[in-house]
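Give me structure tokens for this 440-residue protein.
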Amino acid sequence: MKNLLVYLFAICLSTSAIAQGELVNSGPMLGYSGFREVLLWLQTTEPAEVKVGYWKDGEKERFTETFSTLKKDDLIAKVFPDQVDYGTTYNYKVYINDKPVISKFKLEFQTQPLWQYRTNPPDFRVALGSCSFIHEVQDDNPQPYGGGYEIFNSITQKNPDLMLWMGDNMYLRTPDFLTENGIRHRYRHTRRNTEMQELLATTHNYATWDDHDYGPNDGNRSYVLKETTEKVFNDYWGNLNTNAAGNGGVAQQFVWNDVEFFMLDNRTHRAPNNSLATNKDYLGKEQIDWLIDALTSSKASFKIVISGGQIISDAAVYENYVTFPEERQRLLDRLEAERIEGVVFMSGDRHHTEISRLERQGAYPLIDITCSPLTAGTHAARDEGNTLQVSGKTFYDHNFGTLDVSGPWGNRELLLTIYDAQGDSVFDYSISQQELNYPE
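Here you go.
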């Protein structure tokens, strides 16, 4: 009789867990990581009470405040584990209506370590990618576009500490970008992709956008719903900050150990590509002023500047920054005038991966790592006329990258590795901290 009661109790628990799992539309997702808190995101399928329990090994579980998801807020919960120690990994568990949701994989988050003035900065790994298209047949164009969702599992298997989503993180379709309801539909659909869930739940995620998750194809500042799409973007991501320049948009800055990341917004203030005006805005004056000030103030070993579109390539095709030549040159001139060291550019958009390297007289080279696409369509190898392309460092199929940051303070190194969708290495490229200094 006792065994039967135990069995029946276990069945009840299992049934309850399944029921709670049905209340999850997508997530959990890890957002930013700080010293004193982290952000966790979840979306439910109906109004519910959400909280997170978390603990480090050997300690008792503690809980976040309970968050009520509401239909008017897209049933999104953002909770903040804030009783945490520096540099610690925590196990966590999601509760909906005070009942646990059973996960198929181990759930962990981490806080930032306080290494400053104490030790060398810790080594860590960053994953990066762009252009993530998830099919929905009735809304897709007639020609199939993209696939290969196993790439998200491949990224997870590399055990990154954080993931950089570098734009076109989902693709608004024709029925989507005319209304807020349409925009939210596309985010909901993309975010519940099955293969994406473990990556979202176990890696801290930071994002900027490009045209396809901003609005229409090749979208610019004329998009009438740009404030709406900015709000939806902020609802669905857990960035530490946005609107860094103070004039709208999703530009942001954050630090991970000794590396500082500057994620730019190349859409909100952008003039139309076919405008005949000279000195057209791409990032806009306010964003460039903020970026230069922030880079000048930074003491980071590497200063990673991320844009949805290519910065350094000199191929004046599609939407590369060089098609806005006056503003691009103004940015490059200001970097040199301020003698800002340690800058590396990263970009997405192009549906192929390449490295561009601009040699400069009396200054260190400017490097742009373009990594694309994750699951969106690919194209055959082609010569677009980028004279700054690094030979042998191109790839034209689905791919992602990792950046491994290692070495002692003052002599750090970035090791980029590009992987195909199955997680097999395609090529690597290293950049030393010393290589990005001005000559004495």
